Amino acid sequence: MGKLAVSANLVSENHRQCSTVTGEIPTIPNDKLCFMIQLHRLEGFHLVAKTGGFARAARAFPYPITQPAVHQQVRKLQEELGVELFERVGKDRMMLTPAGARLHAYVGPFLDGLPAVVRAVRSGEHGGELNIHAEPMLLRRLLPKWLKRLERKCPDVHIELRELTTTDTAPLRRGDADLLVGYLPDLPDDIASQTVAVVRPYLVAPATRAKTPTLRALRDEPFVAYTRDQLAHDLQLQALAQNGIEPPRFLYASTADTILGFIESGLGYSLVPALDGQVNFGPGITSKPLNRPKIEFPIVAAWRKDTPENRMLDAALETAPSL
After folding, report:
1. pLDDT band, residue 38 (cuts 50/70/90)
2. Number of Cβ within a 10 Å radius of residue 267
3. Distance of CA 42 to the CA centre of its chain
4. Is the model's pTM score more than 0.90?
5. What top-level class would CATH report for the domain 129-187+305-318?
C-alpha cells in the first residue's frame, strides 16, 4: 500500500481545478493547490486521527509498523500540505487542527470503507457485505427472522455477525460494523438510528424457590448482576434501588445467558431484559415482569450518517422489525 499514490484534490474554495501528475511532487503555482499524496501517508494520518496518538495508531495498523514510522508519515504529509494537521494535547494525545479535521472528513470515510471493497474485489463477492454487531440476546431472539427477510430480499448478501458488549459506537466509526443493534442511549449527532424492538426487565429466580417470584421475597438472596463495566449493571442497580432492595452479596456475569445459567443452578436471582412475546428463560427458571416502576428500553439499529453507499444496509433497514 505504501507504494500506491492517489491524486487528492485538496483545493481552496476558489480553486477547484487540478492537473494529473506523477512521480516527484512538482512546483505548483500558488494559485493552484494540487498535490500527489501517497496513500500510506493518508493512512497514517487517518489512524492517528482515529486513535488520538502515534503509539495507538501504530498498534491499529493492519500490518507491522513502528511508532516513528507513523510519525514520519504524518510529518511528510504536513510538509507536502504546508499546514499543521495535529496539535499535541498530552504525552501521546494528538488532536486534529481545523485543517486536519477538514482533511479527515474527506479521507476518513474512504479509508474506512476501503477494506470491505478490497475484500469484495479479491473474493469476487460483488453482491454486497453487511457487518452487524448486536447484543447477545438480540442475536438469538431478534436477528434470525430479520436476517431471513433480508436474505429473501437480497439472496446475494454476505452477512457477518459479532457480539456487541458495550454501548460504544466505535465499531461504526472504525468501519468494523455497518450496523449496531442494541440499547444505545445518547447516540452522537453523526449516528442515525431507528427503533426495531422494545425490551422490558424481568425478575428471574430458580423455579425451585417460588412459582411467582417477588423482589421482597428474594431480597436476602445473592443477586446475579452484569459486570460493572456494562450499562446493564447500572440499570439493574437503579431498579433495585427504586424498589428499596440492597442485596447482601453479588455475583457477576458478562451476558444474560451466563446470568440465567447461574439462576438455573440456584445461585441467586437477577433482573434481565426480554423482548415482548419472547419470555422463555428455560425450564429451571421462573420469571415475572418488573412492573414497579414500569420500564421499557428501546432497541435501535444504528449506522453512520456519512456511511458510503451500501445497498445491503438499505435493505437491512427496510426489512427491520417494525413496532
Report:
1. confident
2. 16
3. 23
4. no
5. alpha beta
Of 85, 88, 81, nearest in space to 97 by CA: 85
What distance in Å separates the CA atoms of residue 307 and residue 50, rounded to the nearest whole number? 16
C-alpha cell recorded at residue 190: 453523526
Give the end-to-end CA distance of the chain in Å, rounded to a whole number.
Answer: 46
267's grid cell: 445461585
* C-alpha to C-alpha distance for 308 and 287, rounded to whole angstroms: 44
Distance of CA 151 to the CA centre of its chain: 23
Q: Where are the alpha helices (DSSP H) in 82-187?
A: 98-123, 136-141, 143-153, 170-174
Is residue 317 over pLDDT 90? yes
Residue 155 CA to chain centroid, in angstroms? Answer: 25
pLDDT at 309: 77
Nearest Cα to Cα of residue 269 among 281, 278, 260: 260
Q: What is the pLDDT of residues 280-300, one digit of tens each?
A: 788 889 988 887 767 888 999
| Residue range 182-195, pLDDT digits in tens | 999 889 999 999 99
Helix residue ranges per DSSP H, the chain: 39-51, 54-60, 67-81, 98-123, 136-141, 143-153, 170-174, 215-218, 231-242, 256-264, 311-318
What CATH number does domain 5-123 carry, 3.40.50.720, 3.90.1150.10, 1.10.10.10, 3.90.199.10? Answer: 1.10.10.10
Mean pLDDT, the chain, rounded, equals 83
49, 104, 302 from 257: Cα distances, Å: 37, 41, 24
How is the chain split among helix, strand and coil, in percent rounded to 5?
Answer: 35, 25, 40
Would you say 142 and 181 are in contact if contact means Cβ atoms under 8 Å apart? yes
